[in-house]
């Protein structure tokens, strides 16, 4: 596939918008380091998808010229295969907190794209469940809450690698009757509440989330796996639900 001038200009404009630069300043040597994050990578991939340009696996290349080469160069893109079933780690951490897994993520709220319609914007469609968008748009600044949800999704993946390949929009933040957040896994088979505790906070500029999973040594290793297919994801859980410690329940209000 050759890069025609019109498509190249569209690509340049997309990157310029994400980097908050004038389009004329985006040249081959322009650094894409600011997009070398999970959030930046997601924005690039979803924007390119709108242009019909799938990006090879991995984070965005280091420069704009590298991105062009990855999309249209002589080297064929790395094929994306269906992710195999990924098991939760069977070895519990050592030390006084054996069995405790923690994930933390922090994001600049301004790094989320501005949208006139969060329901139709490709980034929000591809990254959040409709229930999350519905919650966010009821607030004055939806991006503040969506940034917190994104942090929770990333913290979940850092806490529990078995969710690393699950699409972001299928791990959704929900709220109980008292407004306290918890995590769901949403698939075509239905919605399942996850045993992970989550806490979300934000200022006017930054959002953060912590996700904790307690794996008591008495029941470790946990036998669970998440299998990701093209359209349907099946979740296999233990016969008995994980028992959360009273200390964690009190700390995270679950």
Summarize it.
The chain has helices spanning 5-19, 38-50, 64-72, 122-127, 130-136, 142-159, 246-252, and strands at residues 86-87, 100-108, 171-175, 181-187, 190-193, 197-202, 206-214, 225-228, 233-236. The protein has 254 residues and is an alpha+beta fold.
What do you see in this structure?
The structure is a single chain. The protein folds into 2 domains: 5-72, Non-ribosomal Peptide Synthetase Peptidyl Carrier Protein, Chain A; 86-252, 4'-phosphopantetheinyl transferase domain (Ribosomal Protein L22, Chain A). Helices cover 30% and strands 20% of the residues. A hairpin with a 4-residue loop joins strand 8 (225-228) and strand 9 (233-236). With 254 residues, the chain is an alpha+beta fold. The strands form 3 sheets. Strands 1-8-9 form a 3-stranded antiparallel sheet, with no helix packed on it. It has a 3-stranded antiparallel sheet with strand order 2-7-6, sandwiched between helices. Strands 3-4-5 form a 3-stranded antiparallel sheet. The chain has helices at 5-19, 38-50, 64-72, 122-127, 130-136, 142-159, 246-252, and strands spanning 86-87, 100-108, 171-175, 181-187, 190-193, 197-202, 206-214, 225-228, 233-236.
Taking strands numbered 1, 2, ... along the chain, how are they ordered across the largest sheet?
Answer: 1-8-9
CATH architecture of the largest domain: Alpha-Beta Complex
Kindly identify the CATH topology of the largest domain.
Ribosomal Protein L22, Chain A
| N-to-C order of helices and strands | HHHEEHHHEEEEEEEH
Percent of residues in beta strands = 15-25%
C-alpha geometry: globular
Q: CA-to-CA gap between the ends?
A: 52 Å
Please work out how many helical segments DSSP would assign.
7
User: Considering the protein shown, what is the CATH homologous superfamily of the largest domain?
Assistant: 4'-phosphopantetheinyl transferase domain
Multimeric state:
single chain
> Biggest sheet, in brief?
3 strands, antiparallel
How many domains comprise the coordinates? 2
Structural class: alpha+beta
CATH first level of the largest domain: Alpha Beta
On the 0 to 100 scale, the average pLDDT is 75
Number of strands: 9
- Residue share in helix: 25-40%
Query: How much is the radius of gyration in Å?
Result: 20 Å
Low-pLDDT stretches are 74-96, 217-252
């Amino acid at each position: 596939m050759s890069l025609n001038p019109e498509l190249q200009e569209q690509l340049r404009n997309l990157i310029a918008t994400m980097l908050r630069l004038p389009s004329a300043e985006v040249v081959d040597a322009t650094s894409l380091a600011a997009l070398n994050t999970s959030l930046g990578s997601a924005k690039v991939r979803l924007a390119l998808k709108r242009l019909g340009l799938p990006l090879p696996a991995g984070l965005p290349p280091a420069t704009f010229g590298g991105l062009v080469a990855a999309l249209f160069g002589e080297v064929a893109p790395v094929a994306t295969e269906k992710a195999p079933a990924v098991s939760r780690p069977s070895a519990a951490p050592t030390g006084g907190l054996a069995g405790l897994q923690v994930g933390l993520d922090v994001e600049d709220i301004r790094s989320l794209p501005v949208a006139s319609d969060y329901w139709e914007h490709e980034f929000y469609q591809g990254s959040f469940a409709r229930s999350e968008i519905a919650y966010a748009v009821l607030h004055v600044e939806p991006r503040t809450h969506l940034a917190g949800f994104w942090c929770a999704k990333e913290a979940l993946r850092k806490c529990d690698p078995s969710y690393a390949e699950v699409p972001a929009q299928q791990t959704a933040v929900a709220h109980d009757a008292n407004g306290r957040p918890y995590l769901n896994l949403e698939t075509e088979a239905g919605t399942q509440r996850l045993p992970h505790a989550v806490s979300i906070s934000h200022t006017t500029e930054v959002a953060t989330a912590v996700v904790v999973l307690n794996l008591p040594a008495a029941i470790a290793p946990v036998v669970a796996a998440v299998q990701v297919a093209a359209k349907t994801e099946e979740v296999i859980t233990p016969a008995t639900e994980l028992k959360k410690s009273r200390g964690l329940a009190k700390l995270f209000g679950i």
